[in-house]
């Protein structure tokens, strides 16, 4: 396995475990506590990157893309954790993988051709989304329409974030990652101040929150470094596997069960995402 493939795979595993922990903890701990605590840890573990020597010519552009990505990731993470906490992880996580569509559309708008492979991938992913989410929407339970919409919103947030991380890292990796992490932390802090809810947590949940921050940083770092190769299609394919990790953990730990039609839908979503990423 090449170093590029390994980085993409590590990013995927880190994201999958991080999302599972975030969704699980948000069922027991206030969501804002999980978001603020994990993001604070992410900022702290990003700071040592300042010791890495990089050309400083593109710092301004990198910070700009990092800020945009931080705003997007704040929306994406908060939406995903709420969806995972209130919905079925086996359905929510694959829908979040549709984030790969954002870089695809960005490429199309900037002149990239939309070939038949990409069209097939999009059709398969949309069909899978309908099959996977249909029973959830019709159930009328807590795993109804809201988690589905939140999952799709998170896909948009993550898609924009991944795109800006790749663009910003082309100028300066550290500045991009640090601006991204700090911006998201500022957003969560402002929300906490407005709501006057300061995080209070200890014991095992605190360890889980810290792990989310570290895993999120590692995932972003691996994705940023791998994107410098220019082979974003390869990185995107491997990084898009993260929902499979979340789904497996949800099945193993929470004993989640999906109907046959939902299983087919989840498989189609993941397959469609893989085709889109490979064709991009």
List the helices and strands and how they pair.
Layout: H1 3-25, H2 31-46, H3 59-86, H4 89-96, H5 101-109, H6 116-139, H7 145-169, H8 173-195, H9 204-227, H10 232-239, H11 242-253, H12 260-279
Helix pairs in contact: 1-3, 1-9, 1-10, 1-11, 2-8, 2-9, 3-4, 3-7, 3-8, 4-6, 4-7, 4-11, 4-12, 6-12, 7-8, 7-9, 10-12
Overview of the molecule:
It is a single chain. With about 280 residues, the chain is mainly alpha-helical. Helix content is about 80%, strand content about 0%. The protein has one domain. The protein has 12 helices and no strands.
Notable characteristics:
mainly alpha, 280 residues, 79% helix, globular, single chain
Assembly form of the protein: single chain
Radius of gyration, in angstroms, nearest whole number? 18 Å
Low-pLDDT sequence parts:
none
The main sheet comes to: none
Number of domains: 1
Q: N-to-C terminal Cα separation, in Å? A: 21 Å
Instruction: Give helix and strand order, one letter per element, not per position.
Output: HHHHHHHHHHHH
Percent of residues in beta strands?
Answer: under 5%
Q: How many β-strand stretches?
A: 0
The structure class reads mainly alpha
- Provide a count of the helices: 12
Question: How much helix is in the residues?
Answer: over 70%
Quick one: overall form?
Answer: globular
Mean pLDDT: 81
């Amino acid at each position: 396995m090449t170093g590029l493939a390994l980085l993409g795979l590590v990013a995927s595993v880190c994201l999958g475990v991080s999302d599972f922990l975030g969704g699980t903890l948000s069922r027991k701990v206030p969501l804002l506590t999980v978001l603020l605590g994990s993001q604070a840890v992410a900022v702290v573990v990003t700071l040592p990157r300042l010791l890495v020597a990089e050309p400083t010519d593109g710092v301004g552009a990198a910070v700009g893309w990092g800020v945009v990505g931080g705003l997007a990731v704040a929306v994406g993470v908060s939406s995903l954790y709420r969806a995972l906490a209130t919905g079925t992880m086996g359905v929510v996580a694959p829908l979040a993988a549709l984030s790969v569509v954002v870089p695809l559309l960005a490429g199309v708008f900037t002149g990239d051709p939309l070939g038949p492979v990409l069209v097939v991938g999009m059709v398969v992913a949309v069909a899978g989304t309908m099959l996977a989410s249909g029973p959830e929407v019709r159930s009328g339970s807590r795993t109804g329409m809201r988690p589905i919409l939140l999952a799709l919103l998170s896909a948009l947030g993550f898609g924009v974030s991944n795109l800006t991380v790749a663009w910003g890292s082309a100028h300066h990796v550290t500045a991009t990652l640090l601006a991204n992490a700090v911006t998201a932390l500022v957003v969560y802090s402002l929300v906490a101040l407005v709501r006057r809810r300061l995080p209070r947590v200890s014991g095992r949940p605190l360890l889980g929150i810290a792990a989310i921050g570290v895993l999120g940083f590692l995932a972003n770092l691996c994705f940023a470094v791998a994107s410098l190769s220019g082979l974003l299609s390869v990185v995107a394919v491997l990084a898009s596997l993260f929902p499979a990790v979340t789904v497996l953990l949800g099945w193993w730990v929470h004993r989640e069960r999906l109907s046959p039609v939902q299983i087919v839908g989840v498989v189609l979503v993941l397959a469609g995402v893989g085709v889109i990423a490979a064709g991009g």
